[in-house]
Amino acid sequence: MLGDSAYPNRPYLLTPLINPVTEAEQRYNEAHIKTRNIIERTFGVWKRRFPVVALTLRLSLPKVQAIIIATAVLHNICRNHNLEEVPSEVELPIVEINEDMYFSEVQDVSERAALVNNFFR
């Protein structure tokens, strides 16, 4: 999974390097940013098409999972059939993201370092 710098790096969650030094680290950050941007745009389209995904769901975990899966399947069907986005009937709240806040916890960076060294040199 990819996360922004607000999250700690974990073996299962890759975050960008805060101060990339080497060319390999810079290439890793560029690839990370490009990939995350695609994912963020896709989530934006999905949330506009199905506002329930953007709102806080106060349901049981199995029901939330079913809603996520159902809306993802419906979203992919719409994309496969080139269906236009319809205007949202619900005004979604604007969420401000402060990219300057970095996670300060000691992080496990060994997985990320191996990835950078093996694939971005």
UniProtKB/TrEMBL annotation:
Keyword DNA damage: no
GO molecular function terms attached to this record: hydrolase activity; metal ion binding; nuclease activity
Cofactor(s), by name: a divalent metal cation
Localization, UniProt: Nucleus
The entry's keywords: Hydrolase, Metal-binding, Nuclease, Nucleus
Pfam entry (one): DDE_Tnp_4
Gene Ontology CC entries for this record: nucleus
DDE Tnp4 domain segment(s): 2-76
Family of the protein in this entry: Belongs to the HARBI1 family.
Protein name: DDE Tnp4 domain-containing protein
